UniProtKB/TrEMBL annotation:
It is found in: Golgi apparatus membrane. It comes from the Eukaryota. It comes from Anisodus acutangulus. One of its GO terms (molecular function) is galactosylgalactosylxylosylprotein 3-beta-glucuronosyltransferase activity. Involved in the synthesis of glucuronoxylan hemicellulose in secondary cell walls. This is Glycosyltransferases.
Length: 370
């Protein structure tokens, strides 16, 4: 009996030793794989105390309180930080939005002010020039018919044509330039007229003349017959290539109703003198004529130059308007002679221009030697 008990005790001791050994081995094994951090160690004092303490024991309360307190601290730390970040972001966005709104508002105000200023300027312009625009619309400018004879023998013809064309281009429209020359093979005049940008009629004739004055009068008659045949309505003025104009002269021409006349200064390239030809006026009423000689030893009615007068073209093709019974549409008749006769027949029909001061010189004649 004694030997059996001893053997049982030995077996039990060996079992205890083996169990202790296995326990130590398992603990060491898991301890090697455990993390090194203090808070996360599976064998930390807090976790061991929690696991070893029975579930219903009050010893877990301090640990739980500490855990809950730490969570609250983290939450209270994160919450104001997030709130502060959101508040800061909101403040930045709000300020940026307010700046954008202010910018848009200021731009809108500037645009409205610019529009108002533009409207005011337009109103002022309309108030300043309504009458002129309305008058121009209701009473359009009358056509000016400028008749210019030319001669191919004149060496300065090209230069003088270009000079006169530059003057006519400065006149407010409408303007019709009637240029007359003898029929020749050269197209020099036609090329000049096409480049002027002025409305023109280029007329030619075939007759030959020995006298330069007869040829010039014939050219003027050709132009008058063309005006009569086509019933061109406007103010006719004979513009020599040697004429030099003040641009206000053409504005005065448009005011003529029937016949108009004006003084002209005759200049000479070789002589240092100026001769005045034309009417003597009281306002726009013709009272007499300038005389060439100081002793007045001239005709009672001196011959008038064609460049000294202008007339309404309807006198050629509308005789009833001017109190005549028949027209002068006979090409064999001297139309220029008829117009001169009408001008000199009754001075009361003549209108002196400029109407406020007929003694003012607006036209000069400067012939160039050829």
């Amino acid at each position: 009996m004694g030997s059996l008990e001893r053997s049982k005790k030995k077996v039990q001791l060996w079992k205890k030793a083996i169990v202790h050994f296995l326990l130590c081995f398992v603990m060491g094994f898991f301890t090697g794989f455990a993390p090194t951090g203090k808070g996360t160690s599976m064998f930390s004092t807090r976790n061991v105390a929690i696991h070893k303490t029975p579930h219903g024991s009050n010893q877990t309360q301090p640990s739980l309180n500490m855990l809950h307190h730490s969570r609250l601290e983290s939450e209270t730390f994160n919450k104001p930080l997030s709130d502060e970040m959101s508040a800061t972001t909101t403040t930045i966005v709000t300020s940026q939005w307010s700046k954008l709104n202010d910018t848009r508002h200021s731009e809108k105000v500037l645009e409205e002010e610019e529009e108002e200023g533009e409207e005011e300027r337009q109103d002022q312009d309309q108030e300043q020039e309504p009458k002129g625009d309305n008058d121009e619309f209701l009473n359009p400018r009358r056509l000016l018919i400028i008749v210019t004879p030319t001669n191919a023998k004149d060496q300065n013809r090209v230069m003088l044509l270009k000079r006169l064309s530059n003057t006519l281009r400065l006149i407010p429209q409408p303007v019709l330039w009637v240029v007359v020359e003898q029929q020749i093979e050269s197209s020099e005049v036609s090329n000049i007229l096409r480049k002027t940008g002025i409305m023109y009629r280029h007329l030619v004739f075939k007759e030959n003349f020995t006298s330069i004055h007869e040829e010039v009068d014939h050219q003027r008659n050709v132009a008058l017959n063309h005006i009569e045949h086509h019933r061109l309505s406007g103010i006719v003025h004979f513009a020599s290539l040697s004429n030099v104009y003040d641009l206000t002269f053409f504005d005065e021409l448009r005011a003529i109703e029937g016949f108009g006349t004006w003084p002209m200064a005759l200049l000479s390239a070789n002589k240092k003198q100026v001769i005045i030809e034309g009417p003597i006026c009281d306002s726009s009423e013709v009272m007499g004529w300038h005389l060439k000689k100081a002793n007045n030893s001239t005709d009672e009615r001196p011959p008038i130059r064609v460049s000294n007068f202008a007339f309404n073209s309807s006198i050629l093709w509308d005789p009833e308007r001017w109190g005549r019974t028949s027209s002068i549409q006979d090409t064999s008749q001297d139309s220029l002679k008829f117009v001169r006769k009408e001008v000199l027949e009754d001075e009361t029909k003549l209108m002196g221009i400029p109407p406020d001061d007929c003694s003012k010189i607006l036209l000069w004649n400067l012939p160039l030697s050829t």
